[in-house]
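Quick one, tokens below. Sequence please?
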């Protein structure tokens, strides 16, 4: 997590340095504020859509991993039950994936 935060800080600082049109790095808060463009409503909707897709994908991946893990553990304990566990597992995985697809579609439909 520390590496991620460090990388993001480095990217933001370098973006501010390259945004300065005078050729010198902005040192005062007024120059920094002038270098950052105003955030529009479309940008907020894009950020919200990206967040929705991100959380849906993370949640869906975790749920699919957990469902597959439990099903395979059940099959490992009782190999004779593999026929009874396989079909419900595939249906559960399809339903989990459909929730991620719904989040993806809704994220694209919600725009100004």
């Amino acid at each position: 997590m520390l590496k991620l935060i460090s990388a993001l800080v480095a990217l933001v600082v370098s973006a501010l340095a390259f945004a300065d049109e005078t050729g010198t790095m902005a040192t005062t808060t007024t120059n920094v504020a002038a270098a950052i463009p105003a955030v529009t409503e479309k940008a907020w909707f894009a950020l919200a859509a990206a967040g929705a897709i991100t959380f849906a994908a993370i949640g869906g991946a975790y749920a699919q991993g957990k469902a597959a893990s439990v099903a395979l553990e059940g099959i490992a304990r009782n190999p004779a039950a593999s026929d009874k566990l396989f079909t419900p597992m595939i249906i559960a995985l399809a339903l989990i994936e459909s929730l991620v697809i719904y989040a993806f579609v809704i994220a694209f439909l919600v725009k100004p």
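Residues 44 and 111 are 10 Å apart (CA to CA). The radius of gyration is 23 Å.
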